[in-house]
Amino acid sequence: MRCLQAVEKQDGNSCSRPLCSNNMKILVIGGGGREHALVWKLARDTPGAHLYCLPGNAGTAAIGVNVPISAEDVGGLLAWAARERPDLTVVGPEAPLCAGLADRFRAAGLTVFGPSAAAARIEGSKRFAKEVMHAAGVPTAAAEVFTDSGAARVFIRKKGAPLVVKADGLAAGKGVTVCDTIEEAEHAVAEALDRRAFGDAGCEVLIEECLVGEEASVLALVDGERAFPLASAQDHKRAFDGDRGPNTGGMGAYSPAPVVRDELWPAIRSRILDPTLAELRRRGIEYRGILYAGLMITAEGPKVLEFNCRFGDPETQAILPRWDGDLGVALLACARGRLDPAAVRWRPEACVSVVLAAGGYPGSYRKGDPIEGLEEASQMPGVTVFHAGTAIRDGRVVTAGGRVLNVTALGADIREARDRAYAAVERIRFAGAHFRRDIAARALRARES
Ligand code: AMP
Ligand code: GLY
Questions:
Q1: Which residues pair with 399 in a beta bridge?
Q2: Structural domains of the chain sorted by starting position, each given as residue range(s) with its CATH number in brackets
Q3: Sign (positive/negative) of CA torsion 197, 199, 204, 207?
C-alpha cells in the first residue's frame, strides 16, 4: 500500500493520517472532458484506486466505473455516496456545488473537494462576487446592478457603449453579452429583465465597464485557508478561428499562457486570490476547492472578469498533463487538511488541447455518430485524447455531446505541443466534426514578438 502525506502541521500537531492508499475509492462527479482528465490523472497517481464517475463518458468508462446518475441530481448522488462511502469526492461542474452538494456530502461524513454553497456563490451570483471584490479591493470592472429595465436603460444611455451586460445567476455560459452599441446593451437588458431569457438567473443584471486586454485563466487550489495557484492557461471561447462566431463552452486551451508573465504572479496572489479568500473568511465562509479567476490582463495589470468555483473546462485538460505532483493527495489535503506547497509542481513541457466538436455546435447538433481513429491518435508521441461528449453504443464509441473530444498533447514548447495535438486531430474522424485551427496561435505570436 502506498501511503503519502501532503499535509503540513495543523494546530501544532503533525497530521500523520495516510492520505492516499491504492485501494481507496474516489468519486468524480460530471461527464465532460474535465472529468475525464481528472479521472485519468487520479488513476495515474493512485494506481489501484477504485475510480467512479457519475455519470462519466466513454473515456472515463475505460479507466473506472461509470454510474448513470446526472451531476445535477444531488439527491441521487448523495444516496449513491451514502451507500458506497467514497474516500474522496471531486466535483466537476458548478451547478451541484451551487445547489449545496458539498454541504450535504460533508453533513453525511463524506470528504469532498469542492466549496460549500455559500462559497460557490462566488460563481453562482455575479453580484455577490462583485460585492466581495469591492469589499476586498480586488481589481475588477466597475459595475452597477439593476432589476428594473427602465433604470438600466437610463444608465446605459448615460454611460455609452461599449458595455457588458451580465445575468446575475448561472446561465449555462450564455448570460454575458459584450455590447459594442447602446442598442445591443438595451436589447441584452430587455432579454434578461423583461423577457426572462435566463429565468430567475437573470432577474438581476450587472452592467459593467468593458475591459480591454488579453484573457487568461488562473486556477488555485484552496485548502480552507491558503490559495496555491496552478499553472496559467488560456481558453478559446468563440466557435471559429480568429475569435469569431458565437461563444461556446471553450474550443481549446493551452498552458502555460505567456500573457501571465512571471512578474504578474505577486499581484495575482496578493491583490486577487488572498484578499478574496480573506473577505470570504471575514463573512464566515470557508473555501475548500478550486478558486478559478478569469482574468483580463490590462495595461494596468490583471483584473478579474469572473470567479468560478471549480476546475475550468477545457483549461483542466491542458493543465493536468503538466502537473508533476500527486493529484489525489493534493485534493484530499485541500478537502480535509492543509496542502503542502511542494505538492504543486510542474513539468517544463507545454500542453495544448484542441476540442473536436459535433457539426452544428454550439447550436443544435447530431448525436450517435461513430468515432474512428481514437486508438491511432492516442498512440502518437505526447498525445492523450480526453473524451467529453462520448458514449458507448453496441461496443463502439459514438458522439453524445456538442464538445466531443479534447485532443491534447505535451511538447517541449507550445509549438511542439500544438503540432502534436493537430497531427493527432488529423487521425480522428466522425461525421460533421469541426475544430478551430488556431488554438495557441496567440501564444506563438507572443513568443515570436
Ligand atoms: P464571464 O462569464 O463573466 O467570464 O464572461 C464571459 C466572457 O465575456 C469573458 O470571457 C470575456 O470574454 C467577456 N467579458 C466578461 N466581462 C467583461 C468585461 N468587463 N470586459 C470585457 N469583456 C468581458
Ligand atoms: N473555460 C471556461 C470555464 O470553465 O468556465
A1: 390
A2: 3-115 (3.40.50.20), 142-209 (3.30.1490.20)
A3: negative
Burial status of residue 421 (CB atoms within 10 A of its CB: 0-12, 13-18, 19 or more): buried
Q: Which atom of ligand 1 is nearest to the CA of 143?
A: 19
pTM of the predicted protein model: 0.94
Backbone angles phi, psi at 172, to 5 degrees: 50, 40
What type of residue sits at position 135?
A
163-167 vs 205-209, strand pairing mode: antiparallel
Ligand 1 atom closest to residue 211's alpha carbon, by position in its atom list: 20
How far is residue 279 from each of residues 98, 230, 257, 299, 361, measured CA to CA in Å? 19, 21, 28, 26, 39
Asked whether 94 lines ligand 1 (CB < 6 A), one says: no
Distance 313 CA to ligand 2 centre (A): 5
Minimum-distance ligand 2 atom for the alpha carbon of 235: 1
**Which ligand is closest in space to the CA of residue 315?**
2
DSSP 233: B
> How confident is the model at residue 23, as a pLDDT?
86
What is the residue with the minimal CA distance to atom 3 of ligand 2? 312
Give the model confidence (pLDDT) of 386-430 as tens digits.
Answer: 999 999 999 999 999 999 999 999 999 999 999 999 999 999 999
Before 381, cis peptide (omega within 30)?
Answer: no
Ligand approaching nearest to the C-alpha of 309? 2
Beta strands in 161-257 (DSSP E): 163-167, 176-179, 205-209, 214-223, 227-229, 234-235, 238-240, 244-247, 252-255
Shortest-distance Cα residue to atom 15 of ligand 1: 305
**Which protein residue has the closest C-alpha to ligand 2 atom 5?**
312
231-264 b/e (C-beta count within 10 Å ≥ 16 → b): bbbbbbbbbeeeeeeeebbbbbbbbbbbbbeeeb
Torsion sign (Cα): 429, 430, 431, 432: negative
426-437 burial, b for 16+ CB within 10 Å, e for fewer? Answer: ebbebeebbbbe
| Cα of 362 from ligand 1 centre, angstroms | 18
CA 441 – CA 438 distance, rounded (Å): 5
Pairing of strands 88-91, 112-113: parallel
Residue 214 has pLDDT above 90, yes or no: yes
Query: Average pLDDT, whole number, for the chain?
Result: 93
Which position has the grid cell 451507500? 83
Give the chain's end-to-end CA distance (angstroms, integer).
50
104: pLDDT strictly greater than 60: yes
